[in-house]
Structures are given as structure tokens and as C-alpha cells.
Amino acid sequence: MKDINRRRLLLSSAVLAGAACRSSEAMSPLVPYVLPDGARIVFQGDSITDVDHWPGTIDPNNARGMGDGYPFMIAHHLLFTRPRQNLLLFNRARGGDTVPLLQSRWQSDVINMRPDLLSIMIGINDFFADAGSANYATKYESGYKALIDQTREALTNTQIVIVEPYLIDDELEADFKSIRDASVRVAAYAEAIYVPTHDMLKRLVQQNGHNYWLDDQHPTIPGSAAIAEQWLKTVGL
């Protein structure tokens, strides 16, 4: 028990330290993640993760079911490099989703899927839905933690990956930082692997222009590739 508690403390401290330094580099887990044979990997989130996947597709490793964004690119890499592991990948994200909307389908689209690895990216729609209120970040964080509680209660061995929500907009970034910071605290609470995206995408936009990497806030092909590479590097796959 002491070892488990110490590991939780170290994980939480590492994630929160990453929030403080806001490094553009990926924060790798303290203990490298080992993907088990036959692992079920589920991606959840909003349109940044959805990217036109066909929601009616229930089969794993289906190109239409994975969409055109970073989940497809991650699936492409893992299925190509690990053909003997019999991995099963699913995209269950939906455009427009917020944390409350995730909650409404969490049982069917996460718990019932019983993933070994669950990747979540959510936050930009929560910001635009509630930015006029004084407690939008608190509402986002508390709802997100409730999802984590539900997941941990039902899926004790699931490894969670939380992908930092981003908003590359000079006028709104300062306000959106409270959502980003909340996502870091949720990652610490969940003992999750945390994938930073904002600083990385900000740097790329400054180098090559916004429209090359992003269509408004939705990633273009190279933008999705950048997120996929950051995800794979951070998770250690």
C-alpha cells in the first residue's frame, strides 16, 4: 500500500510540475507504459478527435470508423508496427461534445467498451459554452473528475491518457489557460499520462502559419500528424 501511495504521489507531482513549467515537450510517464497483447484502445472527445469518423461503425481498426485525424494516424502506426499484438482500436468521439455530453454516453461508449487504454481530449466546447460564466473552469474540472471517478470504479486497470485541449488564438488564449490548467489537475487526479499539445501547436503555427496546421481550431493533416506524434512520444509507443 505504501508503494502504491508513493507512486500516486509521484505521478501527481510530475503532472502538476509539468503544468507549472508548461514545457512544449511531451511529459512521458514515470513508468513506461506496456501495451498488452489484444489491447482495446478507445479515443474519446469532440470534433478534434472525431474528424468525420462514421459513428455507426462498430468494428475495430476500421478506417471509416477511425476518422481522418490523429486517432487514425495513431492506429496506422500501432497496427503497422505491432502486427502480432492483435490490437483493437476504436474512435468514439463526437463533434460538438462537452464534458456533460460525454457523461451522457460514457456508459455505452467507454465503460461497456472496457478499454485497456482510454485517450480523452475535451475542453474547447466547454470553454465556448460557458465562458460567460464566472466558474466555467471549475464546472469543467468537476465534471471531468466525475467521469474519471466513474471510469475508475468500473475499470480499475484501464490506463487513461488525457490530451491537453488547445486554443491557438491570441485574443482568447489567456482566458482558455484556465481550461488547460484544469485538464492538468484532472490528469493528476486520474493518475493519467498527460499529452501537452498547446505549446507545441503554438510553436508550429508561429513557424509555418496558422492555416498550415489548423483550420480555425481543427487540425489539418499536418496538424493531426503533430498531435499523433506527440501522443505516441508521450505514451511511449
Describe the structure.
With 237 residues, the protein is of the alpha/beta class. The chain contains 11 helices and 7 strands. The chain has helices at 2-21, 47-50, 63-66, 70-81, 99-109, 124-130, 136-154, 173-190, 198-208, 210-213, 221-235; strands spanning 40-45, 88-91, 117-121, 159-163, 193-195, 214-215, 218-219. Strands 2-1-3-4-5 form a 5-stranded parallel sheet, sandwiched between helices. Strands 6-7 form a two-stranded antiparallel sheet. The longest helix is centred in the first third of the chain and has 20 residues, at 2-21. The protein is globular, with a radius of gyration of 17 Å. The two termini are 29 Å apart. Mean pLDDT is 88; it is low at 1-26.
Helix share of residues? 40-55%
Q: Estimate the global geometry from the Cα principal axes.
A: globular
Instruction: Describe the largest sheet.
Output: 5 strands, parallel
| Total of helices | 11
What percentage of amino acids are in beta strands?
5-15%
Round the Cα radius of gyration to an integer and report it.
17 Å
Order of helices and strands: HEHHHEHEHHEHEHHEEH
Give a count of the beta strands, DSSP E runs of length 2 or more: 7
**Helix/strand-derived class?**
alpha/beta
How is the largest sheet built, in terms of strand order?
2-1-3-4-5
Overall pLDDT: 88
Low-confidence stretches: 1-26
Note the gap between the termini. Answer: 29 Å
